[in-house]
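=== How it folds ===
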Amino acid sequence: MNVKKILTILLAVFLLTAVCCGAASAFTVEKQAVITPSGSLVPGEKVTATAEIKLPKGTVDTASKVSFDSPLSGDTWVVDIIKVGTIVNTKHPASPYLYITGFDLDYDTDVVLRVSVSGTVSSQSSGRDISVLQITASGMYDSGQQSYSSPKQFVYNTGNLNGELAVLGNAITTIDTRIAAYNTLGRDTGKAQSYNEQARAKYTAAQNAGTADAITAFSNIEAGNKLVKQAQMELALCALSMSLSYTTAVDDTITTLYSKGWNTEAKLLETKNTGLKNTYSQLLGTYNGGNVPDAAALDQLAADSLAVWEEGNGYLESANNPLGGVLKILPFILIGVGVVVVGVVVFLLIRRRKNSWDELG
């Protein structure tokens, strides 16, 4: 048998083995973790989480193991072993033996594990993101190991409660000031005001709860921060809409000025308006990305757009005035007249002095 035939046979055997054994992963996630509560957490809070994974048939043997872990204090576990939709066994793994071996998982069909954990958020988790439920499979035939972690949740630091309140309170006050400024310009800020008032109510509720009820306090702070962002987004939309309307109007003014021969003024407005449009595009991109654009940049854009629009209206008013052309060159006329007058005066003085010399002989 030559080398070519040997290689062909070996390749065929390899392909047949791959088809028979399949290429399944160690496990697949059947149901993502359902966590209660689902948002941010505080130390001392009770948490439960449940997820489901499926172990494909033929990937488990007695050397296989599925392990569990959680940063919760006093964590208790319940693992239902489900075969063809029926719970065939229930395990209660506990530290230091937080795992199930292949002896309990080696079935002739796919096996689903419903994994549940409950416990209390530890103070050691303060200021960090944690995954309350973690699953790791090892010793599987195909991929060897695969892990799953529940979505991360932030754990507040109760020692920062007053600081978090201060940040929220300052944000609400800043929005109040900005709303007043846009109201003065005649802009509609109704939605921003509504969101900010709701945020103020959450701020008050958090204050009242205090450290005595940190869970309620931080829950209200988190809700208040979301409402603040909504108010900020509404003000961003207000500023962007204001800028767009003014820069569009200035474009029309520029066209009119060029048609009337006011090229210098039109070019000046065009340069300023182009800069405003560039800033507008950058801030709009941030807004469309779901993020809050810089408040100072937004407010400056709105103010500058208004100023350029007013400047354009001033030029337009002069250009539309029947005497506009004369008024435009009036400074040059006055300068010319001044030069002529000075020349005449100098001429007369020289002539008078000459006459005086003639009289003196």
